[in-house]
Amino acid sequence: MTIVLETRATPSARLIPTAAAAPERPPFADVVREHLDGLYGFCVRLANHATDAEDLVQETLIRAMRAYDGLRDPARAKGWLFAIATNVWRDQSRARRREVTTVPIDTPDGDDDTFSLFQTIAMEDPFPYSDELHLDFLRLFRDEDVSAVFALITPAFRLPLILTVVHGFSCKEAAAILEIPLGTLLSRLHRGRKQLERGLWDYAVANGLVTTAEGVQS
């Protein structure tokens, strides 16, 4: 006689979900490839030198490759790469005994905090027949001029500008990349903008892009 044992799932067993197969993780090279141009541009602005930027990108990719298994969501790879690049830059700056910040970041910048580019342009009126006064001022600058002004901004204030204005990160994302509170990010972003405004005006005057009222009188 053959005895057949019939096994039936209990109601409780039927409620236990079967484990879903983990999605296949995309290769590291495929994940970072689309962000390489942006990463290089970010590193150029950090290092202010093409050769140093290339070294910074290389070290960033090496660290990223080693840490790739820890990246939970490959869709967030851009911010993850920029955060690694920022930390690499900080480490390299310390190794070269360079100060990452050139002024105390928690003290006012004097005139920079109150300077208004738009008000200055309106008062100086360098384009008396222009209907687009502020736009005409900005059109004076070539890419290399803007880069030169950016390079003079205190690094701690420059980074939030680069991340939000140039690379399109939200303030919350930029704060996460820089590992600082959102309030600190907003404060540094404000001061970075003020330094940028002052830098653009000073650069324009120093390089003869505009003529001030004082310059006309002299």
Would you kindly provide a written description of the structure presented here, covering whatever features stand out?
Helix 4 packs across helix 5 and helix 5 crosses helix 11. The N terminus is likely disordered. With about 220 residues, the chain is mainly alpha-helical. Helix content is about 60%, strand content about 0%. The protein starts with 10 loop residues before the first helix and ends with a helix. The protein has two domains: about 70 residues, Rna Polymerase Sigma Factor, Chain: A, CATH 1.10.1740; about 100 residues, Arc Repressor Mutant, subunit A (Orthogonal Bundle), CATH 1.10.10.
Fraction of residues in helix = 55-70%
* Distance between the ends: 119 Å
Tell me the Rg in angstroms.
26 Å
Task: Please state the second-level CATH architecture of the largest domain.
Answer: Orthogonal Bundle
**What is the overall pLDDT average?**
82
Please outline the major beta sheet: none
Question: Which overall shape is indicated by the principal axes computed on the Cα atoms?
Answer: elongated
Number of distinct beta strands = 0
CATH superfamily of the largest domain: Winged helix-like DNA-binding domain superfamily/Winged helix DNA-binding domain
Which class of the largest domain in CATH terms? Mainly Alpha
Strand fraction equals: under 5%
Residue windows where pLDDT falls under 50 for at least 5 positions: 1-7, 9-22, 99-104
Strand and helix order: HHHHHHHHHHHHH
Structural class: mainly alpha
CATH fold node name of the largest domain = Arc Repressor Mutant, subunit A
DSSP summary: helix tally: 13
Domain module tally:
2
